[in-house]
Amino acid sequence: MQNKDRSLRKKAYEEIKEYQEIVESDPYRLDFHLMPPVGLMNDPNGLIHWKDKYHVFFQWMPFKTGHGAKFWGHYTSQDLIHWIFEPIALTPSEWYEQNGCYSGSAVNHDGKMKLFYTGNVKNERNERETYQCLAVSEDGIHFEKKGVVIHLPEGYSAHFRDPKVWKHHDKWYMIIGAQTKDHFGCAVLYMSDDLIDWELKGEISGSKENDYLGYMWECPDLFHMDGVDVFLFSPQGLEPQGIHYNNVHQSGYVIGELDYDGAVLHHGPFCELDRGFEFYAPQTTLDEEGRRILIGWMGVPDQDEEKQPTRAYKWIHNMTIPRELRIKNGKFHQSPVEELKKMRGTLFEKKDFNINNESLHLSELDGDVMEIVLKFGHADPYNRFEIDLFDYAKLIYQNESKVLTLERKNFDNKSTESRSCQIPKLATLQLFIDQSSIEVFVNDGEEVFSSRIFPDKKNSSIHLSSSGSVTFDLWKWELTGYTYQTSEEAKREANMNPLNG
Ligand code: FRU
What we know:
Helix content is 6%, strand content 52%.
């Protein structure tokens, strides 16, 4: 192990130990979401189901609750519920990554796990440099860096990053999120026989003057599913358009067909993946059961990050719960993975629940770590149905306009802000509530809202109200949450001896 790598690891583990108590004392700490042990977590990286284990790597800044020279942290799990904190996968120790081991992906090759990631460098003139790098592992825990495999090609700014690699027929392909020299976001395709020599195939899609989709595309992902190619990316620089693009940066997808030879993606319109306040940089993997699993970052760069209250407890941000993707009628449907049902504990159930021009508080619904499912009757003549969460956030369906809205108090001034989407017919709502987060799956995942919420922790009441008469079946489960362990290897590393020499 290089001395710089060793000293960075040591410092990061010391940071965990120093602040563990304060981090864990935060009432907003989550029960069933992956979080950083200390510092800042952003994008999920290197998602892979490898030799019976799910690996979730993550962008991690251990030393502060802001962005900086990122590490790759690492969690594994066999069932997406019981998680193990593994030794740090990558530290920014080499010249080509000295300002961060930025986002990337993992593949299985010849029984080895191979990580592709971006080496971020700010040179002595404070200019950005970018390198696409490879690291290889025999055991999925210890990684040997192989250095740079792709240098920045002509025509692009140094915002060229986040390689996602996959196999198609007998070739390997890599898609990179990029920005042209004249500031248009785009995605660039490479091809390789051996994962070492990469040939530039071209720009498969990009933002244009007359079809503007931002100045930079981050975190691309491309996969084949149900007979179509899906391209997922996080464009920066879209202006809000009514209820669309209301976050500072967006995440979405297009569906089409990738012409691998011509390096062109023929596709339909851009569609947002999530309608909530906090969602960005999702990544997917095909697991050994053939499911396409997605995990996103429950945060958005530059969006009120410095106002999040958990920073006082030395940590910030988390991942979404894992979702399984399907395509129905040309649109993504996202459902919480089946495994999460194993967290279900005490059940409260009420059939044919009717609310008629009233506001109800049911103490059985109170709680802060739970799943609530509502199944609506048809043809109800109500105008408005509302779920009020902890006097902090509200989910509102307006039957006339067919708009579903999530309102919450702004992190800063406590004024109300909202995100909305069109739901022609509200059939089901599934809410996952976890201390300071909420994920709402609408109509079995036709739309999802992911957001952080920071209510007064003394208030755990939910109110249901309506104008008009609305009838539904309701289920509420208390949830047990994830379990966490630190691997023996990570414990050993955390107690590592002082530097050699
Ligand atoms: C997205 C992103 C990526 C980059 C990483 C750095 O949130 O900006 O483009 O690789 O975060 O942490």
